[in-house]
């Protein structure tokens, strides 16, 4: 049977789900409602999740497009005991959350970006967020939070 | 990670983990789905709505139209003209003719194409000024397309113009703007076993929603319970339309006996929901050579769209504040809200002030330039100060009038004068033109003479000393609940972690009015302070003796303890335990009623608001001559907020408001062609993105306001109402081109490029 790795768990995909929209599969079948559909047209980034560590807006994707791949949603960011990832903690600590509707997509977009570039400038962070809309914050405190959390992505020098 | 411990909100954990359940995330057993049906008409007399085919489609349970409404199909907050379902006419392209209720959203969508509307087209009226001629009526029963006419009659404007050395006379126009809350409208309704209709919805006014639902169902208010649900933004936009959507879901739930969910697609949301009013403003100002403003005459015409909504209130604020924060002795203002067949317009953050601030703060700079004096000097010559009399005859003497303090703080921190000297004014050796611009305003707090204004809070201390708090203020995403908790934590001297905000319900607390008008923090925290005062008195009555201070009322609540005057103390928990032993509930109900206001509708004179806030914002930018692109470099805002309650969220209001104001000034616009909206999604409606915006700075001025018991005032709207004029002034100082129409980049990069090169 086809499967995906969803938040580090192997999930079998029945054949009748392959044609389903991925966002609806996650929200309805997996009950992962942190992924939001705010425009259904790839404009806003509220539906962004990581697919094999790359950020993806999934409102156009179907389940069959991600077979065998690793998916990380906002529900998979914290530890299983509820301990927050430092990036999530930073969103709280820097006042980056208001209505919260863009927040899962923002955190995941920032996470994917920091995995690639752990020492970004503020302008680079700003550019990395260009695909995610937020109507509440003016992005200022979101950028503050990502900048502060970036130190947790720098790998320790070896030896 | 080292956090700022003050940067906190009670729902942040749920929101960063995806656990926060918004309305569309709610699932109920055997739930049905509702989908609205629109017609292609803009203005038409309905002859027939055929629903039979849709009714027979797979999965369809019911198709609802106006005939199925047991209560009233016509409702509204001021004029009851909103149609829950179109009945006599289609009045705009967003009118809903039917609701398909089916076992899944997909099946409902499919069936929605099968509803047939037969109607006789009427030539639509799409311009507010045209509509005032009353050649075509939007609402025949109203007798005119004019919804309201507000006036200011002060002094003698003709005398004022005669005394003037220069006259500025200009026409300004502004655009339709979409709120673009990230979460679209949604509702889940269930008819409970006790017969009460339970409503979960994305709306910013649970009590207004309850009135809509009860009216449509034809039941008492007590038979509807609206329950607060995490909400993905409102910005004023989730009142009437959101309430109507809840009412339709409730109707479907009542008729089918099953839970019903309606969750809007973005294009439905943009098509149907009300927008910010476009204004046409004819503005004439006369000034003496020394810069004194002698007279202002203005005519304001607001496109109210197809239904009244809150147009009379929005345009009332524009009237009251039609001269900005300046003293003018002779004012004649006529403001009209007008029905058209365009999309409905209503409340949006700023509520009639962003339009007028654009006009006034542009005119001030035009006048300064004509008088060859500094625009700052001109502003200071006319600015309201302590004990000044406003254009409505109100003496500003009950709070600290800090307009000048705010402006000076901005000028200093932004380094305005040095930057102003470097502006290009249309001339530059390189491709880049540099400019800075600023704007300032005052704003009457809360809803003013628009309506009844009071609010309450309930504090219910449990046996273990933990506290349940609720107020009549709604969490729209702005952090209202957190502000209330932090305020109470300070009042009782207990950690914020000991306080839980009760899940809000219209059945547990009295109607506290709308969570709009930047009134949440002011009205909410003031009610919390009053409730805390009553609670502390009750505690003092019981434990005063124990602390050996007799009937002394001066107990101190601090650090989780209650201290008497002679040094004895007990913990808050111990005190509460004693309260229960003595059979006195540590429970209080506090009300905040602001000072009275008065208004004469005929003369436009009176005290329209009980207090004011003061703000100023500046922006620095570069215009590229070759491409017409505008690059924003830096923006600073200064606001007197009375008293800071939640530092992180307060700053968030500054930044978010500035961002929305920048979008309004530069590029946001709902494009309507022949009554139909062309940019129905976020792909074509330009909400500011991270890369469109500059780094922003928030500077807070605190002058505790004696009219509120907490000292706090509001920030939501002031933060949003200044960037458009600041941007327009900065563009002028860069290019030498004055824009009289918003958005400045009405054709994107093109129009700036063309006009710079034409010059």
Could you characterize the architecture of this molecule?
The complex is a heterodimer of chains A (159) and B (759). By secondary structure, chain A is α+β, with helices and mostly antiparallel strands. Chain A folds into 2 domains: 2-76, Beta-grasp domain (Ubiquitin-like (UB roll)); 86-153, DNA polymerase, domain 1. Helices cover 30% and strands 13% of the residues of chain A. Chain A has helices at 22-29, 86-93, 103-116, 122-128, 140-149, and strands spanning 2-6, 9-13, 48-51, 54-57, 70-72. In chain A, strand 3 and strand 4 form a beta hairpin. In chain A, helix 2 (86-93) runs antiparallel to helix 5. Chain A is globular, with a radius of gyration of 16 Å. Chain A starts with a strand and ends in a 10-residue tail after the last helix. A 7-stranded mixed β-sheet of chain B has the order 3-7-1-14-11-12-13, with helices on both faces. In chain B, strands 9-17-16-15-10 form a 5-stranded mixed β-sheet. A 4-stranded mixed β-sheet of chain B has the order 18-28-29-32, sandwiched between helices. Chain B is α+β, with helices and mostly antiparallel strands and 759 residues long. Helix content of chain B is 28%, strand content 25%. The chains are: A alpha+beta (159), B alpha+beta (759). Chains A and B meet through helix 2, helix 3, helix 4 and helix 5 of A and helix 1 and helix 17 of B.
